[in-house]
Amino acid sequence: MAHRVSWSRRALKDIEGIAEYIASDSPAYAGTVVKKIITETRMLAQFPRSGRKVPEFDDENVRELIVYSYRVIYRLLDDEVLVAAVIHGKRLLQ
């Protein structure tokens, strides 16, 4: 059964910030990174458990994909995958 993939406001702001930061050096690379993050999250509709469990949380439903140097953190709900945040791998989770 396919899940619906949705994005939190925070995750959308994270993507915008990533794009702006990278674009200051390379607009083309910024587009590549954002496109890859979005492409990877789309596959969660069919394979919602494909990401690993987030080590900082003891919850099987909080998972992450690693895309380039970014952690795409998402939560599994009944029939939905909610992308909660996209953070740089060196940043600490709050």
Description:
The chain has 94 residues and is an alpha+beta fold. It has one domain (4-88): RelE-like (YaeB-like fold, 2-Layer Sandwich). Helices cover 33% and strands 30% of the residues. The protein is built from 2 helices and 5 strands; from the N terminus they run βααββββ. It has helices at residues 9-23, 27-42; strands spanning 4-7, 52-53, 62-67, 70-76, 80-88. Strand 2 (52-53) and strand 3 (62-67) form a beta hairpin. The relative contact order is 0.22. The model has no long low-confidence stretch (mean pLDDT 94).
Q: CATH first level: which class?
A: Alpha Beta
Radius of gyration: 13 Å
Tell me the domain tally: 1
According to DSSP, the number of beta strands is 5
How many angstroms does the end-to-end distance come to?
A: 32 Å
The CATH topology name reads YaeB-like fold
Helix count, DSSP H or I runs of 4 or more residues:
2
The percent range for strand residues is: 25-35%
